[in-house]
């Protein structure tokens, strides 16, 4: 028996299809026959009828049919199902034999051919003696047949042939060998299929008919056999519903059989077969729940049917196979479109199969561990005359035996021994691993990462048992980190122990050390190997792990000594962030920043969690700037001493549970000012450089795979910290500071600014910077940078200028920031600066004083660069506002001025400065379109304005004629020279330019002005002379009227119309006689220009005085 | 037997103690199903406030039941399949008792959430349940 003895026979697992035999075809030498055969057997897709075809020679011997039993009365069956039965009906006994014969209806030798055909049919019939197999004849014809009924010769000859061959008309077919071969073939095979179905239907009826002869006492086995056969025939008939029904009956019958130790295997085997068929059909009918329910029932029924205790492994092997084949069926159904879920997928069945395989292995280990002397029994009790069993599930040494007790106890013993010996040679691990990996694949598909990990652990353990340590280690290492991150320490411990054994047996020194470190570390529960690491560092072969295979141990030991003798193989660096080692480390800088003139302090805290004290030989910190590494190194000075001897350097020994602190100090380099120093890693060396050593490396100075969670828990904790004795620290309170900044020395100078804010626009604003050193030594190379603080509005940069020279006004060429004004070595003093702010608003000014000074740190002289920044916010305001307006000689506001008519330009200077302003001078610079009437002279020279005081001046101007009657003209500029009146510093004069507004100039056709005394007296004549001047080149008609007034009597023309020649002037004289005293309105003169109706009297009246003061006469 | 929302064990106990490791694996693997259940029907579950997850997955020899509190603390009970005295209702009430007791543990100001549970009261509740069940 092969190891595959538990595999289900292939004829059980395949899909049964009707078997049709084709004879009379010469597929080797006849091309036509070959084409026919190819058409039958190629391209058998699902849409074609399920038939399995076979070409057989015409004289093929079919299996002989045994003579039919007429009575079952004395018949005692020897087993449930014969091993050959399924194969016989699938591949040997056809449902239909088809005879192919080349014969055309009009064949000249018809008679001869007809009888030859009849002979061939007879030969087939003879070899099928006793079977119900049908026979059919296919005539291969060269000609296309006529439609049925038209060819009289054909129908006549057909019936003749049927008669000769003893065939029914339905069994004679014609296959014209023409273009449409495949179409004919499909029609033919459909007809064959019908014949085959009839055959199987008859077979089912035949088997069913046996039932009445059976009795329940002796023929129990036959009940099962017949139901199974009916089920199988139904499947061949493609009647799966009925097949399922028969199989279900068979299944319940098989469990009704009297079970005892001798036939247990047979019952279980058959139950397994039938169960397989049922489950398969259920999946096929898309009722997976039925399949699962059937399988559960099957397992529940069979679980306890162990059979012979000495062959218990057979039961577990069988169980394992049941689960496996169900898993296969399930998986196959999924591939055909069934959807599985997380909690119900083939993985569980594979897993259970693996579980039983493991059980089997264990049982085999117990039952098959014979004395070395016990060999395989001879003669072989498993040998049978035919080389195979007659019935499924029977013992080779007592086939057909159905009674309760074995016929020969000695034979029985030999048989069991033989089976046990065979079992001993089975490679159980391989089977288990294959099943597990099937399950892993399934669970991966159905989102069960933990189940997958668990199975992979099992696989790893199985590889370990199979002594494939490399694969074992690979698998275990793969899943270990999952368990580590999930923090299931109990599980991790068990995995680690196995991994440790593997690495030991392979002589993998580094892995061995890593695993043992983690095993003695915190969280894990192993205590048994306390000094493992210390031993490792002794450069010796470690003690073998317990429970290891002795042969492997021996090999491992030689491996180890080989490894050790190799130089350079004895140093290992372990990155702890992937593990949870037994030493914890935290490194921190004392402060987040250090000044350059003080030493940088670094503390490293180390704690061991292992149960015994541990000594280390080196502790080193590496920093981002490696030059400092040499200062952060702690080494065991006693290099030659034995490590286990108590050393004088007590602090190199870690006591379990106690935190040790190591302090390092170094002076930072001046180049590192402004830079960050980081702890890149902390290394702890266990062992000796002279021998083997392990280097634990904490990247970033702390933390392993478990730290982050522990830190979180510690931070949550409400536990009151118990006060620890001096020099001891609570581990959880140590915080991490893995980087520090080196910052420059604190400057000991003072920078003072003296000034008078706010600044005035355009002013040369003076600020005095006073620097005073408070250093103990000379401050050298003092440099002042002053100006606008960078990073402000870009417009400010353009509108601010800084200079050291206050005597001249800055322009754009001066910078906004004056860098590095060298001041030399410090003589405490002042430095005036001038700032020219063109725009208003606030701006931040920066004064940066840098210098260097020498200092001594830890006995080391360094030159420290110090700097001090002082900023000040400066507000800039407008010093004064200038308002300008044009007024007439009557001080009336003018919107436009008239050509050649004098008017006034008035300036109001309103001081807005909080400080007094002295106006030094003012000047009007007129544009060409304006002329001054008299020499304009500043009227505000030397005036000092206090806050919100106002100074005014005015200039008499007129405009020369303009073209086009009206136009807007520029007036010119107004210059004001001023300075801040300050006692604080000498200020320079600033010249501010104000642009005068534009004004509209207009020609006027008629100019009117009056000549009258400055005042009148009551009842005294007041002569008034009006001049009317024609300013056009045209003769003008003018109408003049004087309106009466209550205050005046008057003489002169009351209403007149006259003409004024171009360029001439008309004079009108009136004598007014005032009647009342005081300011009196003069009688109104109405002038209307008939040629210029748009020039109203109103406009012209503006040139005339409207009132006069009348004095009282006494 | 229960675990935290982080999926590491806070408290785990089995009777009898032999073969404990196997049960640890069983509890651990059952978290796959718990995780899937709470992520899959997250919204619906939150509305219903049904904390009992029922039978998690079938094994040959054991039945694994799950329960998740609102703060995602998971309780898992594994019982022998042959123990037919424990019906769904009994399991449900066991979980409720466990949950109540767990709440008491959490209310203890000296208990640091996330630490393994070391409470006599919780121990005795678990012990009485185990005695009743087996």
TrEMBL record, chain A:
What does UniProt give as GO cellular component?
Golgi apparatus
Q: Which organism is it from?
A: Cyprinus carpio carpio
Family note: Belongs to the TRAPPC11 family.
UniProt-listed PANTHER family = FOIE GRAS, TRAFFICKING PROTEIN PARTICLE COMPLEX SUBUNIT 11
**Where in or outside the cell is it found?**
Golgi apparatus, cis-Golgi network
Q: Which UniProt keywords apply?
A: ER-Golgi transport, Golgi apparatus, Transport
Q: What is the stated purpose of this protein?
A: Involved in endoplasmic reticulum to Golgi apparatus trafficking at a very early stage.
Q: Work out whether the entry's keyword set contains Ribonucleoprotein.
A: no
Domain Trafficking protein particle complex subunit positions: 263-521
Q: What is this protein called?
A: Trafficking protein particle complex subunit 11
Trafficking protein particle complex subunit 11 C-terminal domain ranges (all copies):
1029-1087
InterPro entries in the cross-refs: TPC11 (IPR021773), TRAPPC11_C (IPR025876)
Highest taxon in the source lineage? Eukaryota
TrEMBL record, chain B:
Q: Which domain of life is it from?
A: Eukaryota
What is one GO biological process annotated to this record? endoplasmic reticulum to Golgi vesicle-mediated transport
First-listed, main subcellular location of the protein, grouped into a coarse class: cytoplasm
Cellular compartments per GO CC:
perinuclear region of cytoplasm
Can you say where in the cell this protein is located?
A: Cytoplasm, Perinuclear region
Q: InterPro entries, per this entry? A: Longin-like_dom_sf, Sedlin, TRAPPC2L
Family in the record: Belongs to the TRAPP small subunits family. Sedlin subfamily.
Annotated protein name in UniProt: Trafficking protein particle complex subunit 2-like protein
């Amino acid at each position: 028996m092969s190891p595959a003895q538990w595999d289900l026979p292939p004829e059980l697992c395949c899909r049964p299809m009707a078997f049709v035999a084709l004879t009379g075809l010469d597929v080797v030498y006849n091309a036509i026959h070959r084409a026919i055969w190819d058409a039958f057997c190629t391209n058998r897709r699902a849409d074609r009828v399920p038939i399995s075809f076979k070409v057989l020679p015409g004289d093929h011997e079919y299996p002989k049919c045994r003579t039919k039993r007429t009575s079952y009365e004395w018949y005692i069956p020897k087993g449930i199902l014969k091993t050959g039965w399924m194969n016989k009906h699938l591949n040997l006994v056809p449902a239909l034999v088809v005879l192919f014969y080349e014969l055309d209806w009009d064949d000249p030798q018809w008679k001869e051919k007809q009888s030859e055909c009849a002979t061939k049919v007879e030969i087939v019939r003879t070899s099928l003696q006793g079977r119900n197999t049908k026979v059919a004849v296919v005539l291969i014809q060269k000609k296309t047949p006529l439609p049925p009924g038209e060819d009289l010769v054909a129908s006549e000859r057909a019936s003749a042939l049927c008669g000769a061959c003893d065939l029914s008309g339905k069994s004679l077919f014609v296959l014209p060998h023409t273009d449409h071969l495949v179409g004919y073939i499909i029609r033919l095979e459909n007809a064959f299929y019908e014949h085959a179905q009839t055959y199987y239907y008859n077979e089912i009826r035949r088997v069913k008919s046996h039932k009445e002869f059976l009795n329940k006492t002796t023929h129990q086995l036959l009940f099962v056999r017949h139901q199974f056969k009916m089920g199988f025939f139904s499947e061949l008939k493609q009647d799966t519903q009925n097949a399922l029904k028969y199989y279900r009956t068979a299944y319940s019958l098989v469990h009704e059989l009297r079970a005892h130790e001798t036939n247990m295997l047979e019952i279980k085997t058959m139950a397994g077969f039938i169960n397989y068929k049922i489950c398969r059909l259920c999946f096929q009918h898309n009722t997976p729940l039925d399949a699962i329910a059937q399988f559960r029932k099957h397992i529940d029924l069979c679980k306890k049917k162990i059979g012979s205790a000495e062959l218990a492994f057979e039961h577990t092997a069988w169980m394992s196979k049941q689960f496996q084949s169900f898993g296969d069926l399930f998986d196959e159904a999924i591939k055909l479109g069934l959807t599985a879920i997380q909690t119900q997928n083939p993985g569980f069945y594979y897993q259970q199969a693996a579980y039983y395989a493991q059980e089997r292995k264990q049982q085999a280990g117990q039952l098959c561990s014979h004395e070395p002397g016990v060999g395989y029994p001879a003669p072989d009790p498993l040998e049978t005359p035919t080389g195979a069993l007659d019935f499924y599930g029977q013992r080779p040494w007592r086939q057909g035996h159905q009674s309760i007790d074995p016929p020969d106890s000695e034979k029985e013993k030999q048989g069991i021994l033989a089976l046990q010996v065979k079992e001993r040679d089975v490679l159980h691990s391989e089977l288990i691993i294959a099943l597990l990996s099937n399950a892993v694949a399934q669970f991966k598909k159905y989102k069960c990462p933990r189940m997958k990990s668990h199975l992979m652990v099992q696989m790893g353990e199985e590889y370990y048992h199979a002594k494939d340590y490399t694969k074992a280690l690979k698998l275990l290492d793969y899943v270990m980190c999952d368990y580590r991150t999930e923090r299931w320490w109990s599980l991790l411990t068990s995995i680690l122990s196995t991994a440790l054994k593997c690495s030991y047996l392979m002589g993998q020194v580094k892995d061995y050390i890593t695993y043992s470190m983690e095993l003695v570390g915190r969280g894990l529960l192993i205590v048994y190997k306390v000094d493992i690491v210390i031993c490792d560092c002794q450069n010796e072969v470690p003690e073998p792990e317990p429970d290891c295979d002795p042969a492997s141990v021996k090999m491992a030991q030689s491996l180890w000594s080989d490894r050790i003798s190799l130089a350079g193989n004895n140093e290992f660096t372990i990155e702890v962030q992937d593990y949870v080692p037994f030493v914890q480390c935290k490194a921190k800088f004392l402060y987040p920043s250090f000044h350059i003139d003080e030493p940088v302090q670094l503390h490293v805290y180390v704690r061991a969690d292992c149960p015994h004290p541990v000594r280390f030989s080196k502790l080193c910190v590496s920093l981002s700037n490696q030059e400092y590494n040499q200062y952060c190194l702690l080494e065991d000075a006693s290099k030659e001493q034995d490590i286990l001897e108590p050393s004088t350097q007590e602090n190199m020994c870690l006591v379990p549970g106690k935190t040790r602190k190591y302090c390092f100090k170094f002076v930072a380099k001046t180049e590192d000012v402004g830079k960050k120093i980081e702890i890149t890693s902390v290394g702890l060396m266990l062992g000796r450089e002279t021998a083997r050593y392990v280097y634990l490396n904490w990247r970033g100075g702390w933390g392993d795979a478990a730290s982050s969670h522990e830190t979180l828990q510690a931070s949550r904790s409400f536990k009151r910290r118990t006060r620890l004795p001096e020099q001891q620290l609570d581990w959880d309170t140590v915080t991490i500071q893995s980087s520090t900044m080196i910052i420059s020395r604190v400057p000991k100078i003072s920078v003072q600014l003296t000034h008078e804010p706010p600044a005035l626009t355009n002013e040369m604003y003076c600020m005095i910077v006073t620097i005073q050193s408070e250093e103990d030594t000379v401050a050298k190379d003092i440099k002042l940078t002053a100006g606008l603080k960078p990073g402000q509005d870009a417009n400010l940069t353009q509108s601010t200028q800084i200079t050291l020279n206050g005597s001249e006004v800055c322009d754009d060429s001066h910078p906004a920031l004056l860098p590095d004004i060298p001041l030399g070595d410090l003589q405490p003093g002042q430095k005036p600066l001038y700032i020219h702010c063109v725009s208003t608003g606030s701006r931040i000014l920066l004064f940066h004083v840098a210098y260097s000074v020498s200092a001594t740190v830890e006995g080391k002289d360094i030159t420290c660069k110090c700097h001090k920044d002082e900023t000040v916010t400066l507000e800039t305001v407008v010093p004064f506002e200038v308002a300008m307006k044009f007024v007439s000689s009557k001080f009336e506001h003018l919107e436009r001025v008239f050509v050649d008519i004098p008017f006034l330009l008035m300036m109001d200077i309103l001081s807005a400065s909080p400080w007094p302003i002295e106006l030094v001078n003012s000047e009007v610079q007129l544009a060409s379109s304006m002329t001054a009437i008299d020499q304009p002279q500043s009227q505000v020279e030397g005036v000092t304005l206090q806050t919100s005081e106002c100074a005014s001046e005015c200039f008499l101007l007129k405009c020369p004629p303009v073209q086009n009657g009206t136009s807007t003209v520029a007036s010119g500029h107004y210059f004001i020279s001023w300075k801040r009146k300050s006692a604080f510093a000498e200020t320079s004069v600033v010249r501010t330019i104000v642009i005068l507004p534009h004004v509209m100039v207009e020609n006027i056709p008629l100019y009117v002005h009056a000549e009258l005394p400055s005042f009148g007296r009551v009842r005294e004549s007041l002569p008034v002379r009006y001049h009317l001047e024609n300013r056009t080149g045209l003769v003008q008609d003018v109408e003049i009227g004087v309106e009466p007034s209550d205050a005046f009597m008057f003489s002169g023309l009351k209403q007149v119309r006259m003409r004024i020649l171009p360029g001439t002037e008309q004079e009108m004289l009136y004598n007014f006689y005032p009647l009342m005293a005081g300011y009196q309105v003069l009688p109104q003169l109405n002038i209307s220009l008939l040629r210029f109706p748009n020039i109203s009297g109103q406009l012209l009246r503006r040139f005339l005085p409207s009132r006069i003061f009348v004095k009282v006469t006494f | 037997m229960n675990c935290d929302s982080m999926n590491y064990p806070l408290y785990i106990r089995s009777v009898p103690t032999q073969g404990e490791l196997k049960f640890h694996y069983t509890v651990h693997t059952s978290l796959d199903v718990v995780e899937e259940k709470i992520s899959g029907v997250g919204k619906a579950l939150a509305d219903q406030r049904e904390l009992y997850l029922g039978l998690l997955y079938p094994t040959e020899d054991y039945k694994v039941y799950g329960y998740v509190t609102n703060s995602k603390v998971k309780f898992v009970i594994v019982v022998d399949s042959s123990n037919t005295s424990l019906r769904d209702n009994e399991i449900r009430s066991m979980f409720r008792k466990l949950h109540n007791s767990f709440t008491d543990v959490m209310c203890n100001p000296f208990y640091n959430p996330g630490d393994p549970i070391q409470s006599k009261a919780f121990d005795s509740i678990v012990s009485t349940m185990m005695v009743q069940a087996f």
